[in-house]
Fold each of these.
Amino acid sequence: MIIDCHGHYTTVPGALEGWRKSQIGSLDGSSPPPKRSALVISDDELRESVEKAQLRLQRERGTDLTLFSPRAMAMAHHIGTADTSLEWSRQCNDLIHRVCTLYPRNFAPVCQLPQSPGVPPANCIPELERCVKELGFVGCNLNPDPSGGHWKEPPLTDRWWYPLYEKMVELDVPAMVHVSASCNPCFHGTGAHYLNGDTTAFMQFLASDLFSDFPTLKFIIPHGGGAVPYHWGRYRGLAQDMKRPLLKDYLLKNVFFDTCVYHQAGIDLLLRVIPAENILFASEMVGAVRGVDPETGFYFDDTKRYIDGAPGLSADDRYKIYEGNARRVFSRLKLPA
Ligand SMILES: [Zn+2]
């Protein structure tokens, strides 16, 4: 079985965007915020939105199950208040739930959290509990920078975040560390802000005792871990200089990387540097990079080709990357018989 741990609902029916526009339009007080019930999308519209996109690509590429979350760019936690984020997150999470209910063999749900700049992340606990306990979600996406590129929150290792971590541990759900859109023109969203977020989170973890406080807390750092695998020697050296434990004895008990790296050489490096136990297969389709690589003739985000093409990958490691690690990290994942 091939589990893709990183997919967003980027093809959501247009009515959702209309609802969001109306919500944002209401923020200046000129109109009342839209009711939840004002969003009407039929099951047929949901089917149509994934049949020609994610489901077609699953079939063509030979992957089985996608861990499916709301569109990351659109989380936009910087917009409005915590209430704005909560209403928006509920709508997005409910649609994810519906798609996963329609296609339980193809999708498993991962939620967006109603974060808001300056608001303690404990405010996300009720929505996380609703998603996990009532709707069967198996993980969440955690934005380390709800300001959208201005980095105003304390580091992920600060006690500011601890109440949310306590709940994640209690529910046994991992978080993918995933920023949203960038409002800072210095940082392109998918090309810089995403990878900065990944790299920043890893270094925060490295410099902290977070996992002594939460030995079972699990994070996935997406996009191949940002700059981390490429600079593994730097991080090992920094850990040594800072008198931190060896990365393999400490961080790698709790931190995992996905395979959203869009060329063979990058995947080869990831597989060579990071233990197979810490790598989860992912493509982030349909998402960040949508085109065909003229050098190969295949889609950049068809990451299964790179794993299949990696020299010297043992059958055991391949199993871990494609399936075993995802089952372990997303321990609530119940696969249909
Ligand atoms: Zn993503």
Amino acid sequence: MEVETAAVLGGGGGSTLRVLAIASGKGGVGKTNVTANLAVALAQRGQRVCVLDADLGLANMDVLFGLSPEWSLLHVLRGEKRLAEVMVDGPGGIRIIPAASGFDELTSLGSDDRLRLLDEVDSLDGTFDTLLIDSAAGISANVLYFAAAAADALVVITPEPTSLTDAYAFVKVLATKYGRREFLVTVNMASGAADAEAAFARLAKVTERFLRVRLEYQGYVPYDDAVSRAVRQQLPSVLAAPQSPASLAFTDLARKIAARRPAAPTGGVQFFFRQRLVEAAR
Ligand SMILES: Nc1ncnc2c1ncn2[C@@H]1O[C@H](COP(=O)(O)OP(=O)(O)O)[C@@H](O)[C@H]1O
Ligand SMILES: [Mg+2]
């Protein structure tokens, strides 16, 4: 069991880089906005933060911030560039690794390429305190690959039933295929604390009962027009409207995430798990 719960990115062998994958199952729940605001809020706390835009289909993060990067993750995946070379400056002092738009499947990469990508991420250790990975929706091989590799996974849900069923499907496949037993959860676009807590409780009940997985509630972000207004200004809301209810919630989420100890895998199993990741993503 210990072996199965170990993760390869962030937390192993004296590493100080914390890797957190943000995932959801369903699209449009606010993953990219949560990632961007959490990143900036962590930077405001003095952390060195990098965001890897792993939505290989649509390059959300650079569109959100009006960036037009020359290089992307694609060039890293092809072995043409190092991660550090493709990074661009984002808002609030964060750095962004742009998504490989137009690149469909990680599964088309050979296992050497996949291992190189993991090594590349490891090479960020020392330069950054936290790496946030913004994933695509769904449970494609790409999404699972990043979510399985990260030391921690933050699942974004909304109170809608479809979001809960999609989140359940996501948790299920990560638990059964990759042995992940713990997930952090935040509820976005909630109408209030009771609404959010009810949604969390519904999901936690079924994941505990049927999957024996533990969900850890990280609070909620209210539905707030300030978020979409900020998007139109190509800024995260924590910068565009820091006192808005959603921004205060993002800041609180950053406080919770920063206070929490990252999952700490045991050193010796790292290579084994890497091997497994390569196999599983095949
Ligand atoms: N807390 C919120 N309140 C209001 N609108 C939100 C909130 N979070 C996200 N949105 C809006 O929802 C839409 C989808 O958000 P996005 O972050 O792109 O979702 P995802 O990455 O999960 O597909 C965006 O238009 C965004 O402005
Ligand atoms: Mg997105």
